[in-house]
């Protein structure tokens, strides 16, 4: 695999994070600050480039969290990455927050099968299932938004052990219980991180998934939301 220089930014959930891959080394920064992503993302990215002594023009591409996650957070991350990419004439690598969460779960557990669930609000979860293969986290089912009770639809191997991680397991633990013995669920307070995205973006680059900045699209999974007007508003 070619030694790449990649920057990743993620603002899709409560955690704002940035990471820089230079060859085999990753440097990263993150902060749980749900209402400060617009102010934090760009300075985080610039600080990492300064630490590594690199300019944007020296990068191969910029990866960003394309969702799913908070509608506002997904838009902030996409717009920030597009702005940086336009300015430096770089391609973008849209990365899944669920896949990044699964990679974090793998780092912690070394379990090859991962179930990632993010609280989608409105009594739903964003759900994905992944298998660790040659360093990459390969999707086993299509990512989806669904009621928490349907999480078992993501299990593709009834005889294997799974590691479950993400805020969905914490938010809806009663609806998702009882967990079968094959599912270990400990790291429920984790959020996706750019350091996992920048690692996984190497594989996305090799698969030819880089796109022009104008073509980069967020992935919400939930296409429509019905808002109820409060009385007196």
UniProtKB/TrEMBL annotation:
Q: Which GO terms describe its cellular component?
A: cytosol
Major subcellular location class: cytoplasm
What stretch or stretches form a coiled coil here?
none
Residue ranges of the Gcp-like domain? 31-152
Q: Which InterPro entries match?
A: ATPase_NBD, Gcp-like_dom, T6A_TsaB
Subcellular localization, per the record? Cytoplasm
Gene Ontology annotations of biological process type: tRNA threonylcarbamoyladenosine modification
Q: Which UniProt keywords apply?
A: Cytoplasm, tRNA processing
Q: Which Pfam families match?
A: TsaD (PF00814)
Q: Which family does it belong to?
A: Belongs to the KAE1 / TsaD family. TsaB subfamily.
Cite the NCBIfam families for this sequence.
Answer: T6A_YeaZ
Protein name as annotated: tRNA threonylcarbamoyladenosine biosynthesis protein TsaB
Its organism's taxonomic lineage begins at: Bacteria, Pseudomonadati, Pseudomonadota, Gammaproteobacteria, Alteromonadales
């Amino acid at each position: 695999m070619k030694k790449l220089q990649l920057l990743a930014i993620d603002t899709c959930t409560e955690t704002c994070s940035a990471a820089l891959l230079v060859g085999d080394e990753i440097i990263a920064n993150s902060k749980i600050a749900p209402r400060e992503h617009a102010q934090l993302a760009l300075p985080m990215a610039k600080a990492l480039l300064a630490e590594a002594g690199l300019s944007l023009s020296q990068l191969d591409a910029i990866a960003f969290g394309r969702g799913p996650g908070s509608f506002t957070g997904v838009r902030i991350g996409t717009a920030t990455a597009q702005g940086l990419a336009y300015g430096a004439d770089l391609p973008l690598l849209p990365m899944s927050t669920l896949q990044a969460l699964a990679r974090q779960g793998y780092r912690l557990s070394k379990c090859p099968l991962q179930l990632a669930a993010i609280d989608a609000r409105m009594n739903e979860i964003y759900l994905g299932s992944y298998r660790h293969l040659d360093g990459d986290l390969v999707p086993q089912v299509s990512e989806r938004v669904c009621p928490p009770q349907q999480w078992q639809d993501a299990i593709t191997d009834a005889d294997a052990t799974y590691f479950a991680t993400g805020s969905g397991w914490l938010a809806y633990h009663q609806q998702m219980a009882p967990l079968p013995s094959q599912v270990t669920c400990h790291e429920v307070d984790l959020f996706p991180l750019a350091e996992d995205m920048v690692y996984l973006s190497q594989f996305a680059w090799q698969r030819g998934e880089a796109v022009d900045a104008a073509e980069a699209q967020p992935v919400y999974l939930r296409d429509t939301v019905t808002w109820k007007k409060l009385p007196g508003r």
